[in-house]
């Protein structure tokens, strides 16, 4: 879901210290509305009768099945931590595709 627009600035010091990150967001939804949407997604995933499974998200053409869009969103959010941690001024990481996923029940 679109929660707003954000601008992040990352400054890489010349010495071996972590980058300085500044993030500014202008929200298009209020916090309560965002939390309600998050809770609806959580409840939907939690109460499914069979586990979510998928492969190659998105496919080779960039398509994502509508039922797997929440899986992709969660993968992007989860991978962002690794991207921030591992990226440098000259090396960046991007999530291209989730090879396979299976929900634990």
From TrEMBL:
Domain Cystatin LXN-type: 1-33, 53-105
Domain of life per record: Eukaryota
Family: Belongs to the protease inhibitor I47 (latexin) family.
Database matches in Gene3D superfamilies: 3.10.450.10
Gene name per UniProt: Ocx32_1
Protein's UniProt keywords contain Zinc: no
Protein name: OCX32 protein
Annotated InterPro entries: CYSTATIN_LXN, Cystatin_sf, Latexin
Keywords, comma-separated and alphabetical: Protease inhibitor, Repeat
A cellular component term, taken from the record's GO annotations: extracellular space
Gene Ontology terms, MF aspect: metalloendopeptidase inhibitor activity
PROSITE patterns named among the record's database cross-references: CYSTATIN_LXN
């Amino acid at each position: 879901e679109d929660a707003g627009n954000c601008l992040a600035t990352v400054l890489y010091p010349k010495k071996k210290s972590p980058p300085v990150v500044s993030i500014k967001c202008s929200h298009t939804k209020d916090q309560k509305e965002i939390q309600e949407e998050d809770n609806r997604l959580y409840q939907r995933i939690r109460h499914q009768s069979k586990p979510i499974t998928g492969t190659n998200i998105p496919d080779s053409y960039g398509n994502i099945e509508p039922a797997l869009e929440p899986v992709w969103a969660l993968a992007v959010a989860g991978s962002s931590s690794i991207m921030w941690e591992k990226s440098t001024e000259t090396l960046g990481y991007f999530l291209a595709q989730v090879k396979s996923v299976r929900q634990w029940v």
